[in-house]
Design a protein that fits this description.
- The chain has 2 domains: about 270 residues, no CATH class; about 60 residues, Alpha-Beta Plaits.
- The N terminus is likely disordered.
- By secondary structure, it is an alpha+beta fold.
- A 4-stranded antiparallel β-sheet has the order 6-7-5-8, with no helix packed on it. Strands 2-4-3 form a 3-stranded antiparallel β-sheet.
- Helices cover about 40% and strands about 10% of the residues.
- Pfam families: PaaX, PaaX_C, PaaX_M.
- InterPro entries: PaaX-like_central, PaaX-like_N, PaaX_C, WH-like_DNA-bd_sf.
Length: about 350
């Protein structure tokens, strides 16, 4: 599932070089899988996992051994993971910056899929002009606007149905080196075929197809999740994949007003299905991660804890990280050095229960 807007980033660029998250690739990448895996079971405690255990868990999800090792190494170079060594054994944990970043992102993913606030019929417009030699700044601004729920109505004119919040204003002020104007008002439709409604900045048909594909792909697995038939490596694999897929929706459908959407909009059914699968697999997946880590650790790993959607909404914080409400938006997933896409062909959710 890729964005119909051709925006690869899930988290925006806050202009910081201290943490470089991997860029979203078409499909699931080893780095993305590794980061999701670490977040799903160690975000709350920032537990360090033996590198051999991380490799074992990733290979169970279809990543090659070489791809898993490369992903860990690159995430460490990016500042996403911190490494330590005890004798011949190496371990990795999420850095504090990454834990705060991912906690904010998890909260954003879930709250963005909740019922939208009442709409007052007005639109916030951000018009900007940046020098031609500031291409990186332009990309960062566009990524930031996308993360904030804006879409391009015209080149250099981005819109949102909601007010510009103080934190969003602060982020835009930090990013902007050119000319930016923000204003809010109502549309006055023209009796002309050239009149473009603001909602057309979003490809509603494409978003609908993405929701439909998500529901068609994951609904057949739900009865098996509820009956406890999905466990072990299959539970970890399915839980990682459903998160890796669902987290793209906030950039596709940033709480667009229901008044402007077709009847029967699938935002809520998709969110409910995601929660049922993700939460329903939390316990068996946690048990399997503990079992795998135990094979490579000297003691029973008590600090491996799967969080649920309720935890994500409340704010899952790693040791030493800050509250999600106090953090800046997550950093952009910047391009990896070279290709690390060494995964075997991706299985469907139903196929993932095999093996």
């Amino acid at each position: 599932m890729t964005s119909p807007f051709h925006i690869e980033e899930i988290y925006s660029d806050d202009g910081s070089d201290s943490l470089r998250m991997p860029r979203r690739q078409v499909g699931n990448s080893p780095q993305g899988f590794a980061m999701t895996l670490m977040a799903d079971y160690t975000l709350r405690t920032r537990a360090a996992l033996p590198s051999a255990a991380i490799v074992a868990l990733l290979t169970e999800s279809g990543v090659t051994t070489a791809g898993a090792r490369t992903a860990i190494s690159r995430l460490a170079r990016r500042g996403v993971l911190e490494g330590s060594r005890h004798g011949r054994r190496s371990s990795y944990r999420l850095s504090r910056a990454a834990a705060a970043n991912l906690s904010t992102g998890g909260n954003w993913i879930l709250t963005s899929a909740t019922a939208a606030a009442p709409w007052d019929g007005c639109w916030t417009m951000v018009a900007f002009s940046l020098p031609q030699d500031h291409s990186a700044q332009r990309r960062a601004l566009r990524s930031q606007l996308r993360w904030l729920g804006y879409a391009p109505l015209y080149d250099g004119l981005w819109i949102s149905p909601y007010e510009l919040t103080p934190p969003a204003r602060a982020h835009l002020e930090q990013l902007t080196l050119g000319t930016v104007t923000v204003f809010r008002g109502r549309q006055h439709p023209l009796a002309s075929t050239s009149d473009r409604a603001p909602i057309e900045a979003w490809d509603i048909d494409a978003i609908t197809r993405h929701y439909e594909e998500f529901l068609e792909s994951w609904t057949p697995l739900l009865p098996m999740v509820r009956s406890g038939q999905v466990d072990g490596a299959a539970a970890v694999r399915a839980r990682t994949e459903v998160m890796d897929t669902f987290r793209r929706f906030p950039t596709l459908d940033p709480q667009l007003p229901v008044e402007l959407l077709p009847a029967g909009w699938l935002r809520q059914p998709a969110r409910e299905l995601f929660a049922a699968v993700y939460d329903g697999l939390a316990q068996p997946a946690e048990q399997h991660v503990r079992a795998v880590v135990r094979r490579f650790a000297d003691s029973t790993p008590l600090d491996i804890r799967a969080h649920t959607t309720t935890d994500l909404i409340a704010g899952v914080r790693g040791d030493g990280s800050v509250d999600p409400a106090e953090t800046v938006p997550p950093a952009e997933w910047t391009s990896p050095e070279g290709s690390d896409d060494q995964r075997e062909p991706r299985r469907t959710p139903i196929d993932s229960r095999a093996g």
